[in-house]
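Q: Here's a chain of 247 amino acids. Please give me its 3D structure as C-alpha cells.
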Amino acid sequence: MTSEEGQKISGKVALITGGSRGIGKAVAAAYAREGARVFICARGEDHLARTVNEIRDAGGEIAGQAGDIGKAKDAQRIVGAAVELYGRIDVLVNNASLLGSRVAIADYPIADWEEVVRVNLTGVFLLTQQVLQVMIRQRQGSIINVSSGVGRTGKARWGAYACSKAGLEGFTQVLADELKDSGIRVNSVNPAATRTAMRAEAYPDEDPLSLPAPEEIMPIFLYLASDESAGVTGKALDARERMKRGK
C-alpha cells in the first residue's frame, strides 16, 4: 500500500547522491517503493551495485553510476547519465558527505579539511549546478540538502564536517532566494542522530540500537519530494519532527 506522499511522487525522477548506503540508500528505497524512478551515485562501485540490485529485486525502478561528486567531470557525467536515462530530474537529494577527523581545529589535518569541504560543499555546488540546467528548463523541482545539527550549531571537534554543513545551510538559503520565482524549491533537512555507519564512526561507544534507523526518518524526504511541499522553500527542517507526526 502506498502512502499519500507516495501517490504524489509516483513517476517523479529522483537523483540521490551517496545513495548506496545509510540515509541515501533509505531515501532511494522509499522513493522507489512509492513509484518514483530513482538514480543514485556513490564513489564505491560494489556498494552501489548491491543497492541497485536490492531495490530492483524489490520491484523498484532504479539505476546508478559510480563517481565522485567533488570532481566537476564526474558531476557532469552523473547528471548526464540520469537525464539520458529518464529525460528529466524532479528531485535532487544532496546526501553524500564525509565525516573527516574528529580533532580540534588547532590540530586539524589540512588534507582532511580540504577533502571534506571538497565533497560536502563543493560537491553539492557542482552537482546542483548541473541539475539546475535541467530543473530551470522544467520550471519545477525540489532540491533537498541533507545537513546536520552541528551545521546549525557548531560543536567542538567537529571541524570541517560542521563547517561544511554550515556552508550547506548558507548554500540552501542563497539558492532558495535565487530560485524563488522559478518553481524550484530548496530546503535543508537535519536527520539528527540516526543509525548509520558515519554515526557509529563519530560515536563508537554509543549503542546504535538506541537510535532510529534511516528508514524511520523518511517522512520528511517523501514530503519534500511530493507536490504537497510546493511553495515550501528556504527552510531548515528537522526529520524527527515529521517522524513524530507520522507522515
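Q: Can you summarize the key feature?
A: The beta strands are 13-17, 37-42, 61-66, 91-94, 141-146, 184-190, 236-238.
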